[in-house]
Amino acid sequence: MHKGFPVPRLYAGCAHSLTRNQQTDGQQFVESLWPVDKNASRIQTLVMRLPVICLVAVSAMLCPPSRAQVPVFQVTPIQSSIRFNMSSSRPLTGNFDKWNSTLTFASPDPTSAVLQVEIQTASVHSGNNKNDDELKSKDLLNVAQDPVISFKSNKVVQTGKTTYDLFGTFSMRGVSKPATLNLVIADQGGGSGYGQGVVLFDLKNYGMTSSRKIDERGEIDLNLKAKQVSGPELIHKRFP
Known about the structure:
The chain is α+β, with helices and mostly antiparallel strands.
């Protein structure tokens, strides 16, 4: 026996990359391919098996578990809504019929989320033809030249037990500016819930004008229902 002879570094690297179950299964597999020679020293046997051991290790690393490692959610348009609001002496409001939204996570941490929303401006309607024409006009949404309103988050901060601030970029009428979506989550259990929030903006920053006496601010109201379809559960931060 060669006492104190170090285990080859390549073998150590392969072994540490495997779980205990994978190591046990790999050992049984190697022994079935290359039986132990009881007359050989331990080091000699290890060196002889080294190529097969590393092959098993590489196979395990290249074949990850099939279960998704991140939460996967889908936003349900039928049970959601997005609305445009403008304050004035006579409030002007319109709902958007056509839009899409995605909610993705990089980990089970809710603050790893990325929310993206794209709205088709021509789909706005208020239930009043005159108001619809005003909303779609070049003075407001300008749907003929600017067909899409969008918001994409790039940072999420949890501010309370069920509240989050989503920082990102808001784009409308060809202008893109930083914006914050203040979101409140209503958990319905079973991996589904509603997210309700508002993106506030200054009308003049996006080139909007109107013959009405209006405030300088408008808003996009989002009421989104999302359902988890696969992956691990979200791990929420505890608040008092």
